[in-house]
UniProtKB/TrEMBL annotation:
Belongs to the trans-sulfuration enzymes family. InterPro entries: Cys/Met-Metab_PyrdxlP-dep_enz (IPR000277), PyrdxlP-dep_Trfase (IPR015424), PyrdxlP-dep_Trfase_major (IPR015421), PyrdxlP-dep_Trfase_small (IPR015422). Pfam families: Cys_Met_Meta_PP (PF01053). This is Isopenicillin-N epimerase. Keywords: Pyridoxal phosphate. GO terms for biological process: transsulfuration. The keyword Aminoacyl-tRNA synthetase does not apply. Its cofactor is pyridoxal 5'-phosphate. The keyword Ribonucleoprotein does not apply. One of its GO terms (molecular function) is pyridoxal phosphate binding.
Length: 378
């Protein structure tokens, strides 16, 4: 008999009067982790000198736990504040020749596209964006990207795309890219907690956030670097660890940075373990399927067909009357007037609500959203 796990909003401090349906953007930190962070920050303020003398050792312990969570080689795992910083560090390391290509897809996160454009300008290279249909299967994705690899300096690809909530076939893409001699940078921003061992597919660089599905504090992410690139990979800030020969330690100490989130992050991993996260993740996927159908029916639209949808995110089509150029104002209105936190995304001329589910959500949340949204969207 399968045990159905009950929602656990009691483990968070989220406002109970608000529908929290966008965990995928900024996450939500469990109460226990918040308490650990508060204690660490109080300790730092009680004796700043003593605190900073203790940081390196504490970071090392936390870093090893986070690397183990990803099943990553700890010697190639560095701490970064977010996946965008990880992608930037990777692009700063790779040799990008004048006239070469930086290849992405049209699912790429906006800030990652901006990073590619910055490095292309600096190296007189070209940014090539491969159009991948939302419903494309893995074989089609690999074929489309392979056709753009001639003359490429690097492929930057999502593991789970932010705007479209779909999973990309990273192992197959790494294999085809390496057959062309092209390095691969994987933007795994959403992967920790949704994909087991997300950095195990042999990419040259992989980076992912812990603040999303593992529910760790914000500004906690990891960068996994293949052995051939470790000596050359440097943190974005030049600090006292600049000449440390070890990759992880080189990234650890960044001056007066707030280290409490990184040190507290493993607490959230233990919360997930107690929540039976692998089982719960599967059940949340089913919950979200049902919740997305309810919202789509209420809006008179449908749930988008995505080739390989992420476990805990779904896209619901927006009515054609919704103007995505006013998305920020609309989200603010929904937050203020409907007491619901959602996000809106666009892809290939279509607009979507990207719904999320985490351990604090229940079907009732999506039922309430389906009752409220038609008043402003239908």
């Amino acid at each position: 008999m399968v045990t159905v796990l009950s929602p656990r909003p009691d483990l968070w401090t989220l406002d109970p009067d608000v529908l929290h349906l966008n965990h995928g953007s900024y996450g939500a930190v469990p109460r226990r982790t918040q308490e650990v962070m508060a204690a660490l920050r109080a300790e730092a303020e009680a004796n700043p000198m003593l605190w900073f003398r203790s940081v390196a050792e504490r970071l090392a312990v936390s870093r090893l736990e986070l690397a183990a969570y990803l099943s990553a080689d700890p010697a190639g795992f560095a701490l970064v504040p977010n996946a965008s910083a990880g992608v930037t560090a990777a692009l700063a390391t790779l040799p990008i020749a004048a006239g070469s290509r930086i290849v992405l897809t049209n699912h790429a996160y906006g800030a990652v596209l901006y990073a590619a454009q910055r490095f292309a300008r600096a190296h007189q290279a070209e940014v090539v964006v491969v159009d991948v249909p939302l419903e494309a299967d893995d074989e089609t994705i690999v074929s489309l990207i392979a056709s753009a690899l001639d003359g490429a300096a690097v492929l930057v690809v999502d593991q789970i795309s932010s705007a479209t909530a779909r999973v990309f076939p990273i192992a197959s893409l790494v294999e085809v890219c390496h057959s062309f001699g092209v390095p691969v940078v994987v933007d795994g921003a959403h992967a920790p907690g949704l994909i087991d061992a997300p950095a195990a597919d042999g990419a040259d660089f992989w980076t992912g956030n812990f603040h999303k599905w593992p529910a760790a504090p914000r500004a906690t992410a990891g960068l996994v670097v293949a052995e051939k690139w470790r000596t050359a990979t440097l943190p974005l800030i030049v600090s006292w660890s600049e000449h440390d020969e070890r990759l992880p330690e080189r990234f650890d100490m960044q001056g007066t940075y707030d280290y409490a989130p990184w040190i507290a992050a493993p607490t959230s991993l233990r919360v997930l373990e107690e929540l039976q996260w692998p089982v719960r993740r599967s059940q949340l996927s089913g919950l979200l399927d049902e919740g997305a159908r309810l919202v789509a029916k209420a809006l008179g639209t449908g749930v988008a067909e995505v080739g390989q949808p992420a476990a805990t995110m779904r896209l619901v089509e927006l009515p054609s009357s919704v103007d995505l150029t006013a998305a920020e104002a609309l989200k603010a209105f929904v937050s203020r007037e409907l007491k619901a936190e959602i996000t809106l995304t666009g892809f290939d001329g279509r607009g979507f609500i990207r719904l999320s589910a985490h351990a604090y959500n229940s079907l009732q949340d999506y039922e309430k959203l389906s009752e409220r949204l038609p008043t402003v969207l239908a």
